[in-house]
Amino acid sequence: MSSPADAVAAITGQRVRTATPRGAIWLVELGDGCTLVAKRGQTGQVLAEAAGLRWLHVPGGPPVPQVYGHDDHWLITEFVPAGRTDGAGSEWLGRELAALHLAGAPTFGAAPPGGPQQAWIGAAPMANIAGTRWPQWYAEHRVLPYLRTAVDRGAVDAAGARAVHRACERIEELAGPDEPPARLHGDLWSGNVHAGADGRAWLLDPAAHGGHRETDLAMLALFGCPNLERLLAGYTDVAPLAPGWRQRVAVHQLFPLLVHAVLFGGGYGIRAAAAARAACR
Prior knowledge:
Blueprint: H1 4-12, E1 16-22, E2 25-30, E3 35-40, H2 43-56, E4 67-70, E5 74-78, H3 87-102, E6 118-121, E7 124-127, H4 134-152, H5 158-169, H6 171-174, E8 182-184, E9 193-195, E10 201-203, E11 209-211, H7 213-222, H8 228-238, H9 249-264, H10 266-279
């Protein structure tokens, strides 16, 4: 596998001055002084993220890093210097996120144009398989596959698995009113919301697909998004949510909790079972 400097030079055609590791990425300074980000991954991961970032770039939507190119193992994107956002910035992000969701998707489970059907959410495989109605699609392709893997790995016990299965059996009544497919970031926990030096909130590291817009919002709530109520106020100014959406948060959190149970173990499995029981109350 090529080095980050070699990959950036080959992909951009520019001379590289330095390549500095920063956590899971590399900051690569070009000969003209411009800094880019190089991120290494497997072939499917790189292609899915590149296609997802391009798809999420919509008029009026949240800013996302520009994709400069990729090969089988390296994704090269714009570097966004860090800054701070406040409550007003969170409210503005809510408005932008509504615009992103309203941009829509062809189907539930639709992959971004040019993206693979077999994609990723973090380090977990994620299948982008088209579905016509959200409840059945969500249970079949976003909850049960991860439940099976979590059970096999001992991260969800038998009682927890029964609770999740009950929620899936009742998904029609728990799902709320029908909605058209939304264009989702797909892995929208607070760590993937980056405060830029420009004062705006940028979206990073997507697992983009067509889904239900409440799933993105539920994931923000799951991991402690700052100023969440301000964000929701901005969102609902643009795209009001269907009545009862707060009662459906637990349903939408089943997917990310089970993904985390697969990746990180049983604490998240316990939380997934608790979410399933809460959804069925």
